[in-house]
Amino acid sequence: MSAMVTLHVLSVVIWVGGMFFAYMVLRPVAASQLEPPARLTLWVGVFGRFFPWVWLSVLTILGTGLWMMFGVFGGFAGSPLYIHAMFGIGIVMMLIFMHVFFAPYGRLKRAVAAQDWPAGGQALAQIRVLVGINTLIGLCNIAIAAAGRYLA
User: Fold this and answer.
1) Can you give the residue range of the structural domain that contains 72?
2) What are the tens digits of pLDDT across the range 31-76?
3) By the 8 A CB rule, do 149 and 72 touch?
4) What does the alpha-carbon distance between residue 102 and residue 99 come to, in Å, rounded to a whole number?
């Protein structure tokens, strides 16, 4: 059990911490110091390195979460409300990430490759909004994880 909890938490830290850093630290600095071609190229590189870690985190979070849910609580029926909340929120986050990966990130990569900076800017703006939403949702989910058993 301790290995599952550890893998679960480390995966959450990688994903949510990475989004927080990108949104709150990297994004404002890149926007203030780089012109659109350099900024958009930077983001393609950043996402290209970060998104494989997110995929690994998503798979690990889902797998360890289900393993713990069934191993500790006997499944959904025996799980407390905060576990259901974390699971539901996590699924929403995963769907948002998959949308980012398959839609605006693909458009961003194609725009940068074609040096279509306005289209790249539009794709990056959509990614920014969705990553901002996912970061907030992720922080709320971490709060539920930390406090949930004490609120029930």
Assistant:
1) 2-12+36-151
2) 999 999 999 999 999 999 999 999 999 999 999 999 999 999 999 9
3) no
4) 5
